[in-house]
Design brief:
Elements: H1 3-16, H2 20-35, H3 38-42, E1 45-47, H4 61-69, E2 73-80, E3 85-91, H5 94-97, E4 98-100, E5 106-108, E6 123-126, E7 130-132, E8 137-138, H6 144-155, E9 161-164, E10 170-171, E11 185-187, E12 192-194, H7 206-209, E13 238-239, E14 246-254, H8 258-269, H9 277-290, E15 296-306, H10 313-333, E16 339-347, E17 355-366, E18 381-386, H11 406-413, H12 417-421, E19 442-443, E20 448-449, H13 450-455, H14 462-472, E21 476-481, E22 497-501, H15 509-518, H16 522-528, E23 533-539, H17 544-553, E24 558-566, E25 572-577, E26 580-584
Parallel strand pairs: 1-2, 1-6, 6-9, 7-10, 9-11, 15-16, 22-25
Antiparallel strand pairs: 2-3, 4-5, 7-8, 11-12, 13-14, 14-17, 15-17, 18-23, 18-24, 19-20, 21-23, 22-24, 25-26
Helix pairs in contact: 9-10, 11-15, 14-17
Amino acid sequence: MSRKIATREKFKSLRMRLSREEVLAKSAQIQKQLFELPEFTRAKTLAFYVAKQASREVETEQMIKDSLLMGKRVLVPIVDKAARKVLFSELRDYDSELALGAFGILEPKPSCRRLISAHESDLIIVPGVAFDLRGHRLGHGGGYFDKLLREVASTKPSLPFVGLAFELQVTDKLPNTWRDVAMDILATEKRVLNFKSNKLRPIMSKYAETGVDVRKRGIETFKVTVQNLFPQAFCVVGKDPQLRGYGVLLHTDGAGSKPLQNYLHWNETGEFKWFESIAQDVVAMNVDDIICVGAQPVGFVDYVAINAFRVPKKEFLDALNFGFKKCFGMLKRHGIKILFLGGETADLPDQLRTLDVSGTISARVKLSEVINGGKIKPGDVIIGLRSCGKTKYETHENSGIMCNGITLARHSLMQCECERKYPELKNPGGKGYYGRFAFDEYLDELGMTVGEAILSPTRIFAPVVARILEKHGGQITGLVHNTGGGQTKCLKLGKNIHYIKEDLVEPDSIFRLIQREAKVSWREMFEDFNMGVGFEVIVRKRSAEAILAAAERFGLGAKVIGRCEKSDGKNKLTIRSEFGKFEYR
């Protein structure tokens, strides 16, 4: 018998010792605790469970009836055993609309069913056999509510979950896994436990399964050490110790796991040209970050770590150097002069399976001209610059993928044969490749091969953004490079801003392909990928047309994708799309 099963039986037995009178008396006390919660008071729509009397659950009949008398909309569950999921239906009369259904629990009669998504509720009241002091819950074992909670937590994380339990059902610690969703609040007949302040819902994303943390938890430890003049700006800006009135930037970023795809193409074709695009990826990740604060680049150095037993160093460096020459040459033609000052090449065969490439850019900006989001105000509009297609300063069509989400893209699209041939392409203990495409397989929906779509070099927006700043700098209140965090990257900028994106571009084919093959929720897709908008310009509404015209002159797709409002507290983002409404903080 597993630990969970044994624990479940223990608490069921404890609960069964309660008499019917004790259940009703304790449930009345729990109702009082529940109805006094601010979350309950604010809620207009409540998703209740209907208690099974024979199981001695916390009784909800009176709670539901009183909620209806208060004018609240009440949803109750219907168990769909065939689909193994819980549906919800609006209940208008407890006594006349319910009948025994699955598992001997009262459910709405077929003639009284008004199906409504649980996402429409303002509060979900959750049953359980046991709860612990961290908010973890042990259910009845069918997994129906677990599945519901996971789905809701991943698509509407702000929706509170309230567990109801007798005090005898509460223990110090329950067995749990990353798939188990914790409660926000637990109400018993004696107390209310609030877990909101100390928990993150443990939902592992598809991207996290590959070992990547898109939220980069842990780096906040450096905030007390980093000397940042503008904590709400997109990049760290320090005070120039020599030049009065100026700020300096020393910004580092890399190509992430994208070079592994370059490595695969080189192995399969023997052509070193596949390494050239790494240069643009690294430059783009740096120059387009620092321009978000209005800074002018000065110099750039690269850092190459390589396992020369697997990657021929000279030939690789020749290809990389050629890529840098092309990239810096293009920027110079558009008035952006960057000194390439060399870098470091490290041979690390014991530490590295293949290669890693990053770069550091130095830049300068007048402190009076730093764009830090502080001037964003309600009514400002968000203009999205497309990451796909072909601009006038580019030579090839771009899939739009840029340089983030590549680990998930590689694992979900490339055939498992890849890792059998080249085991160095993945962490030995990590999630393997599970795709069905060869690197050179052409797809009509992409207009290129799958491998080419993954390797499309990160678009450099600096030529366009520099021109916009030159002509309309006074109207620009925010700039966002949609790299790690995808469409949620804007949350990093400014303070007390509600970003509302309600007219996003249609996701490019590469993102639809990844979503379909990896079976990723659309909510996660917007957090992992740029979804077709690689850069955002936040501007006064009256200047929007001028910004759109400037982008058009470069052949760069652009459109107004949203607006800004004031947030009550932390920054937040609402995305309204064809795939649903998603909220992020």
